[in-house]
Amino acid sequence: MSLPTPLDRPPQEDFGYCLFGAETLTNLLKTLESHIEGVRKSNDIEYIHKMRVASRRIRAALPLFVNCFPKKSYKKWLKEIKGVTRTLGSARDTDVQIAFVKKYIDGLSDEKIEIGIRILLSKHIELRTNMQPEINNKLDQFRYSHAIENIRNYCQQIRQKADTATSIETQLTYVKAHQYISKKLGDFLVMEDCIYHENDIKNHHKMRIRAKWLRYTIEIFSQKYDDKLKEHISTMKHFQDLLGEMHDYDVWIDFIPKFITDI
Q: What's the pLDDT tens digit per position in 116-145?
């Protein structure tokens, strides 16, 4: 397997930031990799959720350290990771819907209503079952791409080039933290107007995605601030959860009329 060759060692400050990136991505890759087998077995819906989140965290991290990696390799890695997130997305949404319907059935006392709801549940279970072969195929493709190994090995090369004097506590790290968090915060806040429009489903969804990227970006840099950003992370998670709940209901509103027509 041919690996990209690291560029000449950058100035100490820049290299400290790249070392921070290498350590961050190494940990994220370890988390992603730990969920692959669970996703393949499909016995517990949490593996899909955790692997999808891990893939998004890597997607959030890679652009923060783009200048630390060869451009061509970076683009290829990001594409591979995006493919994983996309494939797991529909499965995760369906898992959430199945769990919701099961819980709803548990609270029913009218057998006539329950019959119809169980048809809905059966339809979703069938849909989810049919997704699994595609998921397994994508996991195979992802393995054959060697994306995890290539990113990890390049990060290892960065770490090996570091000497005992290299510190990740560089001024550039804090400059970058301000730069990237401010950009993601601006991207999120510019969507504010859409929350006053109940039927603006498209922008509600877009705002939820931007909330995620802001939260993940803050989390990456939070260790540099002695966890003083925890409150802000919690706030963004709250926004994300609220917008996610709205999205779940929007999906049901769109699906139910089509389901009724089909049956």
A: 899 999 999 999 999 999 999 999 999 999
Using alpha carbons, select from 154, 167, 165 the residue that is nearest to residue 26.
154
The backbone region for 69, taken as left when phi is positive above 0, alpha when psi lies in -120 to 50, beta otherwise, is: beta
Task: Give the 3-state secondary structure of residue 108.
Answer: coil
Q: Domain extents for the chain?
A: 1-168, 169-263
CATH fourth-level superfamily of 1-168: CHAD domain (1.40.20.10)
What amino acid is encoded at 108 in this protein? Answer: L
**Closest by alpha carbon to 99, among 131, 125, 130, 133?**
125
Other beta carbons within 10 angstroms of residue 257's beta carbon come to 9
Q: 């506590």: which residue's tokens?
A: 169
d(CA 28, CA 152): 10
**C-alpha separations of 205 from 48, 199, 216, 239, 241 in Å:** 21, 11, 17, 12, 12
* DSSP three-state, residue 182: helix
**Residue 146 to residue 1: CA distance in whole angstroms:** 9
User: Do the Cβ atoms of 17 and 167 come closer than 8 Å?
Assistant: no
**pTM summary value:** 0.88
